[in-house]
Design goal:
Blueprint: H1 2-32, E1 39-43, H2 45-48, H3 52-63, H4 65-69, E2 74-79, H5 82-90, E3 95-97, H6 101-108, E4 110-115, H7 125-128, E5 133-136, H8 157-169, E6 174-180, H9 183-193, E7 195-201, H10 224-235, E8 239-243, H11 262-272, E9 274-278, E10 297-299, H12 307-310, E11 315-318, H13 323-327, E12 334-336, H14 341-348, H15 355-358, E13 362-363, H16 367-379, H17 386-396, H18 404-420
Parallel strand pairs: 1-2, 1-4, 2-3, 4-5, 5-6, 6-7, 8-9, 8-11, 9-10, 11-12, 12-13
């Protein structure tokens, strides 16, 4: 039964590729002749969520939309998420829903596409936008292999065949520009992971939030209920920890794997007068009800933008997630909890740097060790990794300021000028 399902999925995959290359793309080329190129189009990850670098660059563009309008262009966010569509519409932001006639017309009228993931290609968008200039912002300063460098793509014959199909479907799109954060990351990571004509070392738009005041638009698509609880707890003198582990391809997390016990952790946090905020990747199988009686463990909606929270967090706990690279810009301490390191690097993702070198913080592998480090850092105020964080921060970020969006914006204006010429 499972074998038949896999065969049907493969057949549908091949049909999709055939329709894209031989029907959608040729028709799109013909139709584009009748549409004026008028849009700078933003598409968020997971079919158009409003978060990460696309969100913050889009909001910055809107602040300077007069300069875009002077070029007879419009700014537009395209989403396949109806909740996002209504959210932006209610806040009077330029947005269209896709698939729709208006959405299709927007794709045919796009002059420049800006994305921060590969998932924007779905529903034939990659074939419709084949000849459009594309900027890939990406969504993390990674320590894992990504895109072309993801070794899971080439482990066996089936994965190599799937890799070739992925190339045909557009997952490994050729970009005109890929955003990088430093010369080190351009050379060691992004230039090897992407096919791109150029790499701009501007920094990430979402990291401007660490240096600038939050406004109403920054808080769109955030967990406002959690943010209010955190704000009130801090007023009461609580310290805050964000636990943000990465996603595991093989499934599991620290609680279901038995590495952490929520009830014991809550008792410890109460003694330390500390609130632990947990932000998972989307995981519908996690039983949040098990933690309903915990007073000092708070779950942040794993579907929402967490970045407006980060500069109010006293300490970050993570494992292999690139979120810690961004958090380095706060200069606050980080604890790494790679409780399943051997399993992760063999069954999930490979890490492209020596782990202890690239992760500037204390390491814990058991709950007792983690609790001891939390006390050491937040209560005893012992921080032994300030210089190491500074070293990695300098390697990862050419700029450490709140002007990444401005740098990208200026370079895009120059790019548009060159297109016109």
């Amino acid at each position: 039964m499972k074998k038949n399902i896999r065969r049907v999925k493969l057949l549908l995959y091949i049909i999709y590729i055939f329709v894209g290359w031989y029907i959608v793309m040729p028709i799109s080329y013909l139709l584009k002749k009748f549409f004026k190129k008028r849009y700078i189009l933003f598409i968020g990850r997971d079919n158009g969520k409003f978060l990460d670098n696309v969100k913050y660059l889009y909001l910055y563009f809107l602040k300077r939309k007069k300069e875009i309008e002077n070029k007879k262009l419009e700014i537009l966010f395209l989403t396949e998420n109806k909740n996002i569509y209504h959210l932006l519409k209610e806040n009077k932001q330029p947005v269209l829903y896709f698939p729709s006639i208006k959405g299709l017309r927007a794709l045919l009228s796009t002059k420049l596409l800006i994305v921060d993931n590969w998932m924007w290609i779905k529903n034939f968008k990659n074939f419709i936008l084949k000849a459009v200039k594309k900027i890939q912002l990406w969504h993390g300063v990674p320590i894992k292999y990504i895109e072309f460098r993801d070794r899971n793509e080439f482990k066996n014959f089936k994965s190599r065949i799937l890799n070739k199909l992925n190339r045909l479907i557009g997952i490994f799109t050729n970009y005109d520009i890929v955003i990088s954060t430093s010369p080190f990351y351009t050379e060691k990571v992004f230039s090897k992971a992407f096919n791109a004509k150029s790499f701009w070392e501007t920094g990430y738009p979402r990291n401007d939030i660490f240096f600038n005041d939050l406004d109403k638009c920054n808080l769109l698509f955030t967990d406002k209920k959690a943010l209010n609880i955190i704000r009130n707890k801090k007023k009461e003198g609580y310290k805050t920890i964000l636990y943000a582990p990465t996603f595991r391809d093989s499934g599991g997390d620290a609680f279901t794997d038995g590495a952490l016990n929520g009830e014991k952790m809550d008792i410890f946090l109460t003694e330390m007068k500390t609130l632990m905020i947990i932000k998972f990747h989307p995981d519908p199988n996690f039983n949040y009800q098990l933690f309903s009686d915990c007073k000092n463990i708070l779950f942040y909606d794993n579907d929402k933008d967490v970045y407006p929270l980060l500069k109010d967090v006293d300490c970050l706990i993570t494992d292999y997630s690139s979120i810690y690279m961004d958090y380095l810009l706060t200069n606050n301490p980080i604890i790494f909890f790679p409780y399943d390191y051997d399993k992760y690097i063999t069954k999930d993702r490979e890490i492209q740097f020596e782990y202890n070198w690239i992760t500037p913080g204390e390491k814990a592998f058991k709950q007792e060790e983690l609790e001891a480090l939390i006390k050491k850092i937040l209560v005893d105020k012992i921080d032994e990794f300030k210089e190491k964080r500074k070293e990695i921060r300098k390697i990862a970020f050419k700029y450490q300021d709140g002007s990444a969006s401005e740098r990208v914006f200026i370079k895009i204006l120059d790019l548009l000028k060159s297109i016109e010429e």
